[in-house]
Structure formats: structure tokens, C-alpha cells
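Please think about what follows:
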Amino acid sequence: MASKQGTVDFLLDQMASAGPIVAKRMFGEYGLYCDGRFFAVVCDDQLYLKPTAAGREWLGTVVEAPPYPGASNWLLIDGERWDDSAWLSRLAGLTAAALPPPAPKKPRKPKAPKAPKAPKA
């Protein structure tokens, strides 16, 4: 079951004070990025954060589960905690800050000009 856009929009609003957060569609689900760092996914309308020491400490009691079949365990955030914007923003900020910055993108090489086609006889 794919996540609803409304769920993602709500989570983005709730975590807005953590910094610039954007959602990108990924295979019917959503990846969340804070300051360019991939820190969470929304799968089946559930929020999963990458496991970090800072996130575990903030959560206290941790529930881990894979966001999709075959994935490693991530931190599953109970939907009842989503209404606390300050708490959720702090968790998002701590998690993103604990992750390495994104690698700089390599500049694309310009394409070589195509050779003109030979005229047909």
C-alpha cells in the first residue's frame, strides 16, 4: 500500500522547524531529506528514521522495524507522537545532524558532438 500525500504533507509541516525538509517520491513511497541529508522514509503511511545514536537517545524506548521487505531495521515512530511538532522536529534535526553530509555531485562531462550522418545513396 502506497503512502498518502496527505500523510507526507502533514509530517513535513510538523518537522518544519528542523530545517529545510523535502520529500521525494521513491517507488510509491517517500524519502525525507533535511539539509540535503536522507534521514527518513514514509512507507505505508508510517514514519521510519535512520537509526542514529542521537535519535535513539532522544527516543528513549526504541521500536525498530524494516520499512519494506528485505530492508534493515529503522526507527519506527509511533503515529501518536506526530502531533507534537516540537518533539518531532527535534528528533528529525538530531537524526539529520548525526548523518554525514551528502557527497558533492560530480559535474557532468559535456557530450561529444555527434558526427554528421552520411548521405544515403
About this structure: The mean pLDDT is 90.
